[in-house]
């Protein structure tokens, strides 16, 4: 392809560079507007500089990809509300046989979850839980955080709904969900097992250290209790106001209490009417709610003259607040005639929650079956999302507000910007230099193509890389045979996804794990760029090489 006119080439490159800088470094000092605004800015400049017309810009937006993204987001939100991720998290610590077994579980669970619910969502909801489990068992968090991030990226390569670049490849290539799955799934499984092996070799010494159980030292450390881990509620960042449906307590909890964090505190403030347990619970809730500088005095007044008399607990703080808790006799607090009504109400609400959760899981299963049957992926996901919204029997606005519309807008701007850059002719000119040496009919060509994909995925991000290389790699392979074209798309999908493990900046999932771990309260951990790089480089090279052998032989 001949290059466009010089002004169009120069201005198109300027617009694309601005988009690239803001996409890779969203908080640059001179323009800290973020990725979404950066993609819109790049798209606007492409039209403003007359690299493309407004009609061409609108035509560049791929609506099927946006529909598939929207549908999978809504389904993920309902699965989170139905405690799917809480059940996945429970699998990590259930009957664990040690640190190495826990590491294997983290890799396996995160890989499977990413293939079904996207890698970003998996990393958001599992990072804090994994940190708590590691701290509870006195284990170093680094190997488990690396296992989560790397396995999530590897696992997401298996399905078109695992990550955004796979969505683009599946829609653009027309490869069915089943063909995509069966083409990459074996490489994904071997990649996850290889990743476990590399992690064990790299951290064997740290994972083999026996836990020190010094009671005196443990008293001065912040250790996560068992009940805290088991009651951990997963809430993705983009679903920060989602309320999980978890039995009676959660079902009866109002949205305002959930958002304020009151719901979780109420569980630890439940008062009984039995002996000294009341005072202990009262003191514990008082400590949890008071500020660090408050002076707390607890005085207990018990009427010892009567065996059936009430118990009174008076609390006084520096803010002159007092709370008096009176435990009436059991007969007065819970009359016998009210017990059947309360039990019936609890059973009714528990059954309602069970039916709702079952409907969510069955709808999701139906979507996956439709995708495997080869039905239109976008409309299958949108249909599943609308069914879940209808089954919720509430105003859909609260749920739709949790959709990451910024990601959808980012994709719109990116489609326009990349299409405008393609119109300059520079990508085609560069590909013509590489294409004769990167054909997939030889081992040398496959290796060179993989290196190009790895490099561009970490420099320009994986989704723009797929948009720039996809049609060109497919056209080159089509000249060999139709089967080679499908193989080329699968190679692009696998390598561009695994390439995210090379550096900390190579994948959004890596950044999510890093930020979630750093901001975690009481048990935070700072995963540095270099600590990730030391593991990421050998892991990515080995897994890419092994995976290519399997994908090519498909």
Can you give a write-up of this model?
Residues 299-342 are annotated as: Disordered. Pfam families: CitMHS. InterPro entries: Cit_transptr-like_dom. This is Citrate transporter-like domain-containing protein. With 554 residues, the chain is mostly helical. It contains 27 helices and 3 strands. The chain has helices at residues 6-24, 34-48, 54-60, 63-81, 84-93, 99-117, 119-136, 141-156, 164-173, 177-208, 215-218, 226-230, 247-251, 255-260, 262-267, 277-289, 330-333, 339-372, 377-391, 397-400, 405-423, 426-434, 443-459, 462-478, 482-498, 508-519, 529-552; strands spanning 297-302, 311-316, 322-327. β1 (297-302) and β2 (311-316) form a beta hairpin. α6 runs antiparallel to α7 (119-136).
Short description:
The protein has helices spanning 6-24, 34-48, 54-60, 63-81, 84-93, 99-117, 119-136, 141-156, 164-173, 177-208, 215-218, 226-230, 247-251, 255-260, 262-267, 277-289, 330-333, 339-372, 377-391, 397-400, 405-423, 426-434, 443-459, 462-478, 482-498, 508-519, 529-552; strands at residues 297-302, 311-316, 322-327.
